[in-house]
């Protein structure tokens, strides 16, 4: 891997800086595709490629490139967005880059997909990686369509399907949970015991590094998560441990909380956080990937760093 060059898209998002830093530490030379000129970390270079809403001429960006890590796209934003927008940014733009990478002789194309390409269900049994994909919304369909398009190319590709990612700078539901953990009062969530798969951003970065290696079998999709699922009550307890506190969790039954959420018109939001969604990374682990951090320790560090910030 020494001095191998990697074109990285989506480097300015939540996970991008962590991935770029991991690539540099591992000895790769990242080239960051950007919409406009921005500073880049030492050890990386930048190239302006413009917005993905229109087709991009990737030839210059791919000159001398050994691998591609494609993370750019439209993030899951819930209902209301035009399906054509998801398809343009998550499917068509991905395949345009992949076809250009194939023409340029790129060795490995790593695509950051989503577990939503497999399912949008919560409160179900643990997901099997060999199950028939059944995405439940436009975002998941756009990610699955990109994977299917990659499969039609003569290219060594790997699609990673991460679950909910957490780490410094996290937003949305995990950020809300962190705010709850920081409240100096007991919380009524001790009864939320449904197992939930999460993914530390450090483990995401290490999985991308592994996916670039010949040891990772190409031309297939992989569920990506921390190996052991965790309940909401244990998430909060780990975060509070990082804040130097005891759990402070009251064992209010989950059914009561769900009923209250339903009355408030927030049952979907409640299920996204507290429902059971287990997707173990069996294929990656069998191939030899080893996570860098353990979930409870990573959650404790996240909480501690949020207090410091």
Automatic annotation (TrEMBL):
SUPFAM superfamilies: NAD(P)-binding Rossmann-fold domains. Residues 6-212 form the NAD-dependent epimerase/dehydratase domain. This is UDP-glucose 4-epimerase. It comes from Bosea robiniae.
């Amino acid at each position: 891997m020494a001095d191998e060059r990697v074109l990285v898209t989506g480097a300015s998002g939540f996970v991008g800086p962590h991935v770029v830093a991991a690539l540099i530490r591992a000895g790769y030379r990242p080239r960051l595709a950007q919409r406009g000129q921005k500073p880049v970390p030492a050890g990386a270079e930048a190239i302006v490629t413009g917005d993905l809403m229109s087709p991009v001429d990737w030839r210059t960006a791919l000159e001398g490139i050994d691998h591609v890590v494609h993370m750019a796209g439209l993030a899951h934003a819930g209902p209301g967005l035009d399906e054509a927008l998801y398809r343009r940014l998550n499917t068509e733009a991905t395949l345009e880059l992949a076809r250009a990478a194939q023409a340029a002789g790129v060795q490995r194309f790593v695509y950051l997909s989503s577990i939503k390409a497999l399912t949008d269900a919560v409160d179900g049994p643990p997901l099997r990686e060999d199950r028939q994909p059944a995405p439940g919304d436009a975002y998941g369909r756009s990610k699955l369509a990109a994977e299917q398009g990659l499969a039609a190319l003569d290219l060594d590709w790997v699609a990673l399907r991460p679950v909910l990612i957490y780490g410094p700078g996290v937003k949305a539901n995990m950020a809300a949970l962190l705010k709850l953990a920081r409240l100096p009062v007991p919380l009524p969530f001790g009864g939320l015991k449904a197992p939930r798969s999460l993914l530390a951003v450090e483990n995401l970065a290490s999985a991308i590094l592994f996916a670039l290696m010949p040891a990772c079998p190409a031309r297939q999709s992989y569920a990506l998560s921390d190996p052991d699922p965790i309940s909401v009550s244990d998430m909060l307890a780990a975060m509070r441990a990082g804040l130097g506190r005891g759990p402070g969790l009251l064992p209010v039954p989950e059914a009561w909380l769900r009923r209250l959420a339903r009355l408030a018109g927030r049952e979907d939001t409640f299920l996204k956080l507290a429902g059971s969604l287990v997707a173990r990374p069996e294929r990656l682990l069998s191939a030899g990937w080893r996570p860098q951090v353990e979930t409870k320790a990573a959650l404790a560090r996240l909480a501690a760093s949020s207090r410091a910030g």
